Amino acid sequence: MTTMPELARPLAGPVSVTGGGRIMLGDGRSVRVVSSYPVRGGIELHSLAASVEFECAHCHTSCEATLVAVQQGFLVCPSCYPVIGSGRAPGIEGFRPCRASSPGGKLYSFAR
């Protein structure tokens, strides 16, 4: 069960990271940033106190995660973060890091 209210569709709008240790989502909600990691290639990586559902700006997959990257004001899923700018395809062959099922489904699952 998530502590965040469910959205009708995943968040796809811009986000911003505030100086007060929060990520402001495009729908007006905010989530506390637990930890931030060094910026790599202009992409920020943040661990959040609660999971957020969003559409990855890189692979356009619906995701729910507590570890998110921010690229040019948009959320990127944990699978796409390491491959942006590397020329590799996101993820491991047959592995979907983002939730493809309805709320309550597994966060990580293998494609069949």
Could you explain how this protein is built, in words?
The chain is mainly beta and 112 residues long. The protein has one domain (16-110). Helices cover 0% and strands 41% of the residues. The chain contains no helices and eight strands. The protein has strands at residues 16-17, 22-24, 30-40, 43-55, 62-71, 74-76, 95-96, 109-110. It has a six-stranded antiparallel β-sheet with strand order 1-2-3-4-5-6, with no helix packed on it. It has a two-stranded antiparallel sheet with strand order 7-8. The protein is globular and about 35 Å long. It starts with 15 loop residues before the first strand and ends with a strand.
Brief summary of the model shown:
The chain has no helices and eight strands.
Q: Ranges with pLDDT <50 over ≥5 residues? A: 4-9, 101-112
- Helix and strand element order: EEEEEEEE
Structural class: mainly beta
Number of helices in the DSSP assignment: 0
Q: Alpha-carbon distance between the termini?
A: 26 Å
General shape: globular
Largest sheet, in brief, is: 6 strands, antiparallel
Offer a few descriptive terms.
mainly beta; two-stranded antiparallel sheet; 6-stranded antiparallel β-sheet; 112 residues; 8 strands
List the helices and strands and how they pair.
Layout: E1 16-17, E2 22-24, E3 30-40, E4 43-55, E5 62-71, E6 74-76, E7 95-96, E8 109-110
Antiparallel strand pairs: 1-2, 2-3, 3-4, 4-5, 5-6, 7-8
